[in-house]
Each structure stands twice: as structure tokens, then as C-alpha cells.
């Protein structure tokens, strides 16, 4: 087993798509950690003290780079906008919805770096199921 503290992070320039108003540029931080090998954390810096953070499956991002993925709060799909390869990320919650466009190549590059930490399909080797169950039962 590898060091579970291995992490990957990147800053991603993206756009918030605002219907009838164009796009608003934003910066998001992407995080991946071997401590949570199935998840990607995306923090949006929107001008408040604390960023708005979303957590979703690494596999969702990988599938969404190639075609539509997700059926719920997070949906991802690729598009080509006049030669610009983009990754669309749609987020919804009880508080509202947002649609972002990110450079597909930068997002794919981040994902590739996560595979250097833990290869796809090997995530289960980095989860201590007994420890996770103990923690869940302790909280119950």
C-alpha cells in the first residue's frame, strides 16, 4: 500500500455560464487525496471568505470527459465550442443551480495526475473498510 497522504491539486480557470449574459470567469481549486480515493473535491472561489466546495466521484469526471455522465446533483459532459474543447459541469442543490465550462485538456491533465497517485480500479486497495465501519458504528 502506498502513502495515503498523497495528494494532487490544481487551479482551474473556468466560466460560470449565465443565460442571456454570457460567461463569468472564475477560479476553482481541484483536490484529490489518497485518503478519499474515490472523490474529487472542487472548491469555487466566489468572493466570500470560504470557497463553495463540491465533492463528486472521480469516475464521474473521467466518464464526463468522454460523454454525458451523472444523473443528479452533478452532471458532466464534453462539448466543442468553435474549436475550444470544453467540459461542462452542471451542479444543482436545493439552493440553486449552476453551469460551468472548464478547459477539457486542463481537467483531463488533473485527472491523469490523480491516476499517478492511485490507478483507476485500485481505489478499494486504499480504503480501510474495518476502520470506516468502526467510525460509522461509533457515530450511530
Give a structural overview:
The protein is an alpha+beta fold. It has a single domain, classed as Transcriptional Co-activator pc4, Chain A (Roll). It contains 3 helices and 7 strands, in the order ββββαβββαα. It has helices at 58-66, 104-117, 129-139; strands at 7-18, 22-33, 39-45, 52-57, 74-81, 84-93, 96-103. A 7-stranded antiparallel β-sheet has the order 4-3-2-1-7-6-5, with helices on both faces. A hairpin with a 2-residue loop joins strand 6 and strand 7 (96-103). Helix 1 (58-66) crosses helix 2 (104-117). The two termini are 30 Å apart. The model has no long low-confidence stretch (mean pLDDT 88).
Number of helices: 3
Give the radius of gyration. Answer: 16 Å
Order of helices and strands: EEEEHEEEHH
Alpha-beta classification: alpha+beta
What's the CATH topology label? Transcriptional Co-activator pc4, Chain A
Give the biggest sheet.
Answer: 7 strands, antiparallel
CATH class: Mainly Beta
N- to C-terminal distance: 30 Å
Q: How many independent structural domains? A: 1
CATH level 4 superfamily: Sporulation-specific cell division protein SsgB
Strand tally is: 7
CATH architecture descriptor text: Roll
Instruction: Specify the oligomeric state.
Output: single chain
Determine the fraction of residues in helical runs and give it as a percent range. Answer: 10-25%
Instruction: Using the alpha-carbon principal axes, give the shape.
Output: globular
Which band does the percent of strand residues land in? over 45%
Amino acid at each position: 500500500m502506498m502513502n495515503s497522504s498523497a495528494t494532487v491539486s490544481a487551479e482551474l480557470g473556468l466560466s460560470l455560464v449565465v443565460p442571456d449574459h454570457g460567461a463569468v470567469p472564475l477560479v476553482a481549486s481541484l483536490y484529490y487525496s489518497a485518503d478519499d480515493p474515490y472523490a474529487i473535491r472542487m472548491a469555487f472561489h466566489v468572493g466570500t471568505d470560504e470557497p463553495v466546495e463540491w465533492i463528486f466521484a472521480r469516475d464521474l469526471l473521467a466518464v464526463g470527459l468522454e460523454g454525458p455522465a451523472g444523473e443528479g446533483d452533478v452532471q458532466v459532459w464534453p462539448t466543442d465550442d468553435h474549436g475550444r474543447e470544453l467540459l461542462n459541469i452542471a451542479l444543482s442543490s436545493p439552493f440553486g443551480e449552476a453551469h460551468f465550462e472548464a478547459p477539457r485538456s486542463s481537467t483531463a491533465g488533473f485527472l491523469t495526475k490523480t491516476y499517478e497517485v492511485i490507478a483507476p480500479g485500485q481505489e478499494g486497495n486504499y480504503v480501510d473498510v474495518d476502520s470506516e465501519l468502526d467510525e460509522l458504528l461509533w457515530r450511530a
